[in-house]
From TrEMBL:
Pfam family, one: HTH_Tnp_4
One GO molecular-function entry: metal ion binding
Protein name: Transposase
Segments forming domain Transposase Helix-turn-helix: 34-85
Ranges for domain DDE Tnp4: 104-256
Cofactor(s) annotated in UniProt: a divalent metal cation
Key words of the record: Metal-binding
Superkingdom of this protein's organism: Bacteria
Presence of the UniProt keyword Hydrolase in the record: no
Amino acid sequence: MLSYPSVIPVSTQTLRELTRIIRTHRRAIGSRWRRLSPQRQALLTLAHLRNGDTYHRLAAGFGIAVATVCRYLHETITLLAHQAPTLTDALRRLARTRHNYTIIDGTVVRIDRVAANKPFFSGKHRYHGINFQALTDPDGQLLWLSPGLPGAINDTAAARHHRICEQVRQAGLRLLADGGYDQVAPGVITPYRNRRNRHQPKRELGPAYKAANNALARVRSRGERGFATLKNWRVLTRARCSTHRVTTLAHAILTLEHLPN
């Protein structure tokens, strides 16, 4: 077996913060001795999440058994996922920054495990996946990530399921979205459309409507940075775990993104 040096594109401050979380957890449960120190366990977790390294590669690189890798990763990822901000926490944080709007967007994380084919198959993306809804601030920083839903559910239905629009409105904020959220709820700002549904002929939008759509697109485009940041963690490129575990992975990454850098 060959080995080679590699890097993890994560700051050392993130490693220190994750090490502190693991060390605090070990003290709380009274864990005395482990094969890996808290820092090495933190490095193991970051290598899996950021680089997408498999259990067998990590076991060979860290000199431990595959079962030990699985146990360490599940412990750390679950610990991080429990610290992920809720929707209420995210809206309160946004309100403290004196912003008056937030941006919603959705994505489908590809998976290769399904409990049943049909519920997880996304007709839009043409593959099986998990639907996630996210809120970002006006600068594109990821604030909140929803629990995952089967990929067959579209963005509008997912937003209604999580009651995102109602909670944003109760917080006194406006919600900006793309055309996929058309008529999701009153007060949500979406682009003007050239037809109401696919059964009607297209009509040409006037200059004022086009200018409004362009202005909305410029503001909303910053929200794309949130998912771009999320998908930098290669474990979500194609999740090779149980469908019930994908939400835990995504929320653990959200917690890491909120750690001090």
